[in-house]
Amino acid sequence: MTQKYLIPLTAVFLLFLVAYAGAGAGLGWFFGIVFPYLAVIAFLVGFVIKVMGWARSAVPFRIPTTCGQQKSLPWIKQNRIDNPDTASGVFIRMLLEIFLFRSLFRNTKAAFNRNASNRITYSWEIFLWVAALAFHYAFLVVLLRHFRFFTSPVPSCVQFLEALDGIVQLGLPGLFLSGVVLPAAVLFLLARRLFDQKVRYISQGSDFFPLFLILGIAVTGIFMRYFTKVDIVAIKEMTMGLVTLSPTIPDGVANLFYAHLFLVSILFAYFPASKLMHLGGVFLSPTRNMANNTRAKRHVNPWNYDVPIHTYEQYEDHFRDKMIEAGLPVEKKE
Amino acid sequence: MADELTPDELLDKIDYGTDSGNWLDTTKSVQIRPGMYCYAAKAESVETLGLPNARSWNPTEEDWKLPDNWQQIIHDGIKERLEKFRTFKIFMDVCVRCGACADKCHFFLGTGDPKNMPVLRAELLRSIYRNDFTTAGKILQKIPGGQRLGGNRPLTLDVLKEMWYYFFQCTECRRCSVFCPYGIDTAEITIMARELFNLLGLNIDWIATPVSNCYTTGNHLGIQPHAFKDMLEFFVEDIEDITGVDCTPQFQKKGADILFVTPSGDVFADPGTYTCQGYLILFKYLKDKYGLDVTWSTYASEGGNFGFFTSHETMKRLNAKMYYEAKRLGVKWILGGECGHMWRVIHQYMDTMNGPADFLEVPVNPITGTKFHNAASTKMVHITEFTADLIKHGKLELDKSRNANRIMTFHDSCNPARGMGLLDEPRYVINNVCDNFYEMPPNTIRENTFCCGSGAGLNAGENMELRMAGALPRATALKHVHEKYGVNTLGTICAIDRAALSTLCEYWVPEVEVAGIHELVGNALILPGEKERTEDLRMEPLPGCEEEE
Ligand code: SF4
Ligand code: SF4
């Protein structure tokens, strides 16, 4: 069991060391230019291939999971969102799913007490939902905030987001909320994997690896911002070089930054081949993104084919005498 | 159930703390244990359907008599299905193992077996998928210990056996799907897995034999046409004793208004038979009062479709009869009885597989004028939709007091609940034919409803321990309302439920009886010209008539 998390932890640590030492040994161009480009290409190509692969597979049947009252008689109130029969209902269902993790919000926790009543009890389990939302939104904010390294001048929306994120002013430089929330959420998700017996049992190395990786990215980022003041001007020069496709390696970029960038690159490259692709999959899941109107509207299966059936004629041929005797109507009398 | 565990023994075994072993190891779980599995499909049933690898084999024996290239067959089968079903492909890729579904499965809750967590059930197959179909898996295979990190493993005989064991411990109820943030439906994965098993002839007999009967005879039990007619006539006699009215149905009547199809369980086994009597009474009433002409068919005498638990193709072959017969008889539309998975097939698959049903009309209730827009394409209406509409328009004369002894609760069957959203119609009917109705706790009804534990072809006799364990969440909720409100009747709209929940009650909550909704309708409906009733359809005294004679 321990290898499930120790190996990923070690792997992330080693990746960090490789980049840190490598940059120190003059391989900055590799960790600062070559690998980031490769990673972005791997991400984009991999993502597209994966999504296209899903899209290429047929959706033969309309099989939404319905979580509320269907549309039926006019006086019965339909649950338009959880059991949508129109595209707009589906749209809202998907928005809630994608932006608010609605299904996860329903989560309950079951407990069983072996006593006189032997009851299974269900309590609302909101922590996974809170942590997942916190994690994803903090990550998004961090990602968007980083646009100030990739744009010049920095768009006002990024500046606004930054201001909002740093609204709690504590010391200098201002503390970003996302910088607190993100590691906290990751730690919670990690703790769940380690200490919740059920989740621990189902977890793979490939569940721990992204968590450690993201934690590594967050920690190196935080370190650079608050502790080892890195040369922001040089870093920005370098990142601008990357996005304008005229890469340069300015002097004064800290080795820690190369390590940070390398971990980010690993995350990008790893993304399409991993469970992180749920980012793409959530949009395409046929149990959520289809309207529940199969009885009302015809849905076509692209590979539908004819099948042998036992016809009425064969049936009657087989049972004719018995049917006649029993007074059941038949097509042919003998 | 003498040789099986007592409820107490069964409860003692439950522990949700899972063991710390690695699930990739099969040794422990491949002990296919009596009470937890169903017997293998009989060779002749598999043969009748022309499905591959018919032979006699036994799950508990070492040798499963597989064809030599069985691994290749499974590999090709997975490959084909990945292209044909986007669900399958996505569900293999995007699970993040968050565990939200883990404690949602009644089989996990009732057994505590960690491999009954929906995510892990799916992982059994995903581990093969990752190994054979993903780049990461192919790389990890080559690194020592790599498989453990990615959770991939090669398909060995032990792995196959383990998958077989656990995919026949899933009732395809979809409860897990409700909670999954990506809508991953483990039931869908089970459907795929069972298709794969069928490629190797590894079905269970409780599925294969009903399917083959249904194919040749028209219904699961292999009731031949004359016997089917006899059975309904037997009910007619009973009804006449109770009401004084002759409710003889029509069979294969060309030009009737409506073809009625119900699961054969209603014709065969108590307490479904009382529901069947309820249908007969309702149709007689509608015929006498409004001239509505309903016909039954001995050819399409099965609504339930165990083909659904075999393969998509087999499902289609069995389902085709309904349209075929409706066309031959020239009816206007089709009405369907109370059945769970039958309705999932009709609602989500029938029109796509066997439509378009352009030889039928968009269903209109000729008595109320209501057009069933929600069935405009399939042309098939659920009987509780139909009856609710009649009641709403005041077309039925009902005497609720005849059900006054029934303190009701309602079990949402998984398939109508999570496959169509038929939730309020049956409740409306119940409330109009009974005075006392109490809901079970909210986490256990409607889309959160718990399976009876015997669905998807698992209601055999030999796997009773599994069934009773799986029934536990439903049973504890039922017990709660029984203790709190004195509930003595569990209403349901599924034929398998009527059989399975009766066994469940006997085991866990013996004070509660199971009834179909149309049994209650049949009791309450005042037939034109009926004599004063003193008995309900079970031939037990009506409330207030107990002391007579
Ligand atoms: S809820 Fe969905 S994503 Fe989470 S473990 Fe279950 S199947 Fe996987
Ligand atoms: S479909 Fe039902 S039986 Fe199957 S894994 Fe999900 S909850 Fe369990």
Report the structural category of chain A: mainly alpha
Share in helix of chain B: 40-55%
Number of helices of chain B: 24
Lateral arrangement of strands in the main beta sheet of chain A: 1-2
* Dominant shape of chain B: globular
Bound ligands, named by name, code or SMILES: iron/sulfur cluster
Question: What's the SSE blueprint?
Answer:
The complex is a heterodimer of chains A (334) and B (549).
Chain A: H1 2-24, H2 28-56, H3 87-100, H4 102-105, E1 108-112, E2 120-124, H5 127-145, H6 147-150, H7 156-165, H8 177-195, H9 197-202, H10 205-227, H11 232-243, H12 255-270, H13 278-284, H14 312-325
Antiparallel strand pairs in A: 1-2
Chain B: H1 7-12, H2 43-48, H3 70-84, H4 86-93, H5 106-111, H6 118-133, H7 135-142, H8 146-150, H9 157-167, H10 175-179, H11 186-199, H12 205-217, H13 225-243, E1 250-251, E2 258-261, H14 265-268, H15 272-290, E3 294-296, H16 312-329, E4 333-336, H17 341-354, E5 380-382, H18 383-392, E6 407-411, H19 414-419, H20 424-433, E7 436-437, H21 464-470, H22 472-485, E8 489-492, H23 495-508, E9 513-516, H24 517-524
Parallel strand pairs in B: 1-3, 2-3, 2-4, 4-5, 6-7, 6-8, 8-9
Helix pairs in contact in B: 3-4, 3-11, 6-7, 6-11, 13-15, 15-24, 16-17, 18-20, 20-24
